[in-house]
Amino acid sequence: MRRSDITAERDTLVLRAGEEGWVRVTTESGVDPTAVYWNWVEVLGFLDRYPSTQLLAGRLDKGAELAAFAANARRDERPLLTPIDRWGHTPFAPTPLTGHSVAGLVRAHLTGQAPVHKRPPARTPTLLHENAVAPVAVDVDLDQDYYDRGIVARRNAHTRLETVTDILDGIDDEADKLLADLLAILDRTEID
After folding, report:
1. DSSP letters of 126-184?
2. Percent of the chain at pLDDT above 90?
3. pLDDT by residue (tens digit) across 96-106?
4. Do residues 79 and 116 lie in contact, with contact meaning Cβ atoms separated by under 8 Å?
5. I need a surface site. Which of 139, 153, 169, 182 has the fewest CB within 10 A?
6. Domain extent at residue 173
7. Max CA separation in the chain (angstroms)
8. Is 28 exposed, middle or buried (0-12, 13-18, 19+ CB in 10 A)?
9. Do the domain assignments include residue 17?
10. Integer Cα distance of 161 and 175 in angstroms
11. Co-location of 15 and 62 in the same domain
């Protein structure tokens, strides 16, 4: 199922079902499919902007709203549901979950048999060795022209380095000429 294969109209979820056209989804389990869909669209929008399930988990743990990211979840041909591995990573190239996998996940959640998702333990900061120098925090105030100076410096470097390719090509030509001269000298000494 692709993102463009599902939409919500008022309080009804509508799915594209092959040649049959669009099908309305209703449920009697007390679960509101449109609420589930909109929550997932918010998650997809967040992951489109910040492709990190760790950042997403941090946001969800803090109870932050993701509604602002719903507009980011473009209606395109990317998969609506992708697998998440045991480390919490989604595949680099979006691959869809199979229908069998989706059915198993939904069944487990609706029957209350889904596994409890445990957060990995927080990383503890590494301790410094006895002889190591502790990092010093420096409070630096950057002046207002900091970024402008950086942009100008990069532009100047780009302008100055514009001829580097020509210079290197000239060096390469000189090296080829010297090699040809050397080979000519060696050929003459072998004849003598």
Report:
1. PPPPTTSPPP-----PPPTTHHHHHHHHHHHHHHHGGGHHHHHHHHHHHHHHHHHHHHH
2. 12
3. 888 898 889 88
4. no
5. 139
6. 146-191
7. 102
8. exposed
9. yes
10. 21
11. yes
